[in-house]
Structures are given as structure tokens and as C-alpha cells.
């Protein structure tokens, strides 16, 4: 059995949210060991697990450099560029995305190499001697020897796949079709309630799915060459869903911040569940109203009754509870959803710690996004997906 691959993730304050969280949790889900480090204490909303001054490049198999605003000042840090040079000298795979290539330019690692990046980084890369490759889309990635570069987080599936391939990965069970059940805006038609009201009217209630809980598993599965679709009642392919970041900052419950806009890939109406091999239900605030939609309930029942893998996280279990599919099941959820789970006839499994996930038959449940590595890994096992080295 091959030794576990070990990867270093180079972070800084105000690193791009997705560009650190998605590769970090995806690689962990695939069975790699990932250390996240920087010369300060922590990045924005991202807890580090290694100390910069103790890093030995020789002990790692590869390096990932996220983008965001952090690379602008990390590129000025000699200890950071020296570390990158060590990985380059050892010819170990280096994957850098968006503005991360500023660090590569400062380290002298792009001279004579094909390289792409966020378009604004082009002048610095050309000045550093790189052969600039224009990103055809913001999902564009390219590779040159041990160097993998991407334009933005939209290209994570290819970016991550190229990186694990460079590490020697073999993907088994690819080609699965996975469906994500999303939510953003709920329209409620109110019928005439009072005699003085001549017309009916629409109440617009905005509600959000959790940012990480849709994007991390979505791109993690895409990176393994699965076909992944995202749908939302009342919306169509190409429409966007606003998301919210739920973070754990020492309060009695999670804090909430605006997240990214997530683009749907398929229409809800006319969808044939039999065309998919599995279902993922993200959490956030969306599930509490999606659980009121009979079309959603019917879709979930079809997946559960067919025995196909279903993975639900955080508040997503509110939909499972409303669907009547939890009776006799063992499952977990965000602790505040315990009442829904128990009243639905399930046996409650305490998520202690919060990243604990559980599998019972065809059902995987998790408590919150810190558990994504277990959540995605257990879902992969049910789908017959694996990454080996």
C-alpha cells in the first residue's frame, strides 16, 4: 500500500474563501494529509493546522497556493518565496490559482514556463519571464511539468484533478451522475385575504443555502470526473442562487455572512431522478422552506426509496424529516435540527465533535461544513468512487 500523500497549503489573511477551503477539504476527502500554514496565526475564517517556521518542504509531496488578496503581500515575504523555491528545486507538484501566481513570479518559478492566472496578474507573469496562456474562461487551467496554474475558483475541478494526477492519483468509479438540491428564493402566492384587497399579491422571502456546503462537495465530485447538476425549484439552468457563510466564532450559534452566488446547471421542472446515481442536500437556511415544497419531498422520496446514495448535511435533514424517510434511520445533523430528526422517528447520533459524519444504509449525514472531508469521503464510498496512489 502506497504511503499517504502529504500536501502543504500556503495561506494568508484574506486568502480567497473558496480557493483555500475547496482544495483543503477535497484533498482530505480523497485521503491525503493536508497542512495549512502561514507566518501569522490564522487566515480569514480558516483555522491553520501547521506552524510556518517548522515546515520542511522535503516532507511534502506537493504545494497548493490559493489566490485572493493574500498573495500580494506574501510575495514580498522572503521566507515564503524561499519555501516555494525549495518545492520547485525538488520538482514537486505546485498548484497555484488566481493571484497565487504572484508568489510564483516573486520566487522566480515561472521563467520559461506556460502559465495562466487571473487576467490582472498577466503583466507580472510576463515580466517574470512566463509564457502567458490567456484564460479562455475563468475556469481555465494549464500545466507545464510540475507546475499547475488556474484562473479562478471556477476551474477548481480541473485544477484539483491535475494536481492529484501529478501526485500519482488513480481515480476509480468516475462518471457518476450526482444531483444537488439547492434553494435561494421562495415565492408564496397569497390569495385575497380581505374584502378591500382587489388583487392577490406575492410575498418575496429570501433564504440562503450554506456557501461551503454546496460548493465544496459540488467541486470535489466534479474533480473526480462526475457529472454534477444543481437544481432549485422555480429556477432554471444558468440562474444564480445567493448563499450565506455560516461560521463558528464562539457564539451560542453560528454567525451569518453573505456568500458567493452559485450558478445552477439544470432545470428543476421535468427532471428525471432515474438519470442520477446520487443526491446531495446542502444545509443553510434554504431547507426550512424547501421542506414545504411537495415537489422537493417527492424527489427526495424517489432517491431514498430507490436505495441510491443520499448525502445531507447541517439543516438539510429538515427536508429528510419532512419527507418521512428518516423513520428507523440513524443520523446526525446540526444540533438545532435534533428535534426534527427525533420527531421524524430517527435515532439521533450526537455530532461530537462537530465534524462527525455517519452512514446508515444509503444515507450519509453530517452536522456542518467542518465535516466535509468525512461527508464527501463517506458519500464517495457509497457511490463506488475512490482515489488511490
UniProtKB/TrEMBL annotation:
Protein name from the UniProt record: DJ-1/PfpI domain-containing protein
Source species: Buddleja alternifolia
Family the entry assigns: Belongs to the peptidase C56 family.
UniProt xrefs under Gene3D superfamilies: 3.40.50.880
Annotated ranges, domain DJ-1/PfpI: 5-164, 202-381
Amino acid at each position: 500500500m502506497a504511503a499517504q500523500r502529504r500536501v502543504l497549503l500556503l495561506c494568508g489573511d484574506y486568502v480567497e474563501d473558496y480557493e483555500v477551503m475547496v482544495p483543503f477539504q477535497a484533498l482530505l476527502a480523497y485521503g491525503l494529509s493536508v497542512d495549512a500554514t502561514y507566518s501569522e496565526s490564522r487566515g480569514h475564517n480558516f483555522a491553520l493546522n501547521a506552524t510556518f517556521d517548522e515546515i520542511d518542504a522535503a516532507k511534502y509531496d506537493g504545494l497548493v497556493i490559493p489566490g485572493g488578496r493574500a498573495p500580494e503581500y506574501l510575495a514580498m515575504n522572503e521566507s515564503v518565496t524561499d519555501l516555494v523555491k525549495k518545492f520547485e528545486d525538488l520538482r514537486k507538484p505546485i498548484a497555484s490559482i488566481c493571484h497565487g501566481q504572484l508568489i510564483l513570479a516573486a520566487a522566480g518559478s515561472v521563467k520559461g514556463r506556460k502559465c495562466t492566472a487571473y487576467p490582472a496578474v498577466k503583466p507580472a507573469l510576463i515580466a517574470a519571464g512566463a509564457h502567458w496562456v490567456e484564460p479562455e474562461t475563468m475556469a481555465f487551467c494549464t500545466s507545464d511539468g510540475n507546475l499547475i496554474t488556474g484562473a479562478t475558483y471556477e476551474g477548481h475541478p480541473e485544477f484539483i484533478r491535475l494536481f492529484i494526477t501529478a501526485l500519482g492519483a488513480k481515480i476509480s468509479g468516475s462518471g457518476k451522475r450526482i444531483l444537488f438540491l439547492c434553494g435561494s428564493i421562495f415565492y408564496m402566492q397569497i390569495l385575497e385575504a380581505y374584502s378591500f384587497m382587489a388583487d392577490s399579491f406575492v410575498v418575496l422571502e429570501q433564504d440562503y443555502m450554506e456557501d461551503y456546503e454546496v460548493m465544496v462537495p459540488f467541486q470535489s465530485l466534479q474533480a473526480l470526473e462526475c457529472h454534477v447538476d444543481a437544481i432549485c425549484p422555480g429556477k432554471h439552468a444558468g440562474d444564480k442562487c445567493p448563499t450565506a457563510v455560516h461560521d463558528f466564532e464562539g457564539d451560542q450559534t453560528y454567525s451569518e455572512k453573505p456568500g458567493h452566488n452559485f450558478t445552477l446547471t439544470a432545470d428543476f421542472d421535468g427532471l428525471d431522478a432515474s438519470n442520477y446515481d446520487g443526491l446531495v442536500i446542502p444545509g443553510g437556511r434554504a431547507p426550512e422552506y424547501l421542506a414545504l415544497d411537495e415537489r422537493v419531498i417527492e424527489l427526495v422520496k424517489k432517491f431514498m426509496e430507490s436505495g441510491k446514495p443520499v448525502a445531507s448535511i447541517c439543516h438539510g435533514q429538515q427536508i429528510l424529516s419532512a419527507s418521512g424517510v428518516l423513520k428507523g434511520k440513524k443520523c446526525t445533523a446540526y444540533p438545532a435540527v435534533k428535534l426534527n430528526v427525533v420527531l421524524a422517528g430517527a435515532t439521533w447520533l450526537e455530532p461530537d465533535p462537530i465534524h462527525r459524519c455517519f452512514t446508515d444504509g444509503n444515507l450519509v449525514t453530517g452536522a456542518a461544513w467542518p465535516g466535509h472531508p468525512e461527508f464527501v469521503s463517506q458519500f464517495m464510498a457509497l457511490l463506488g468512487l475512490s482515489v488511490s496512489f
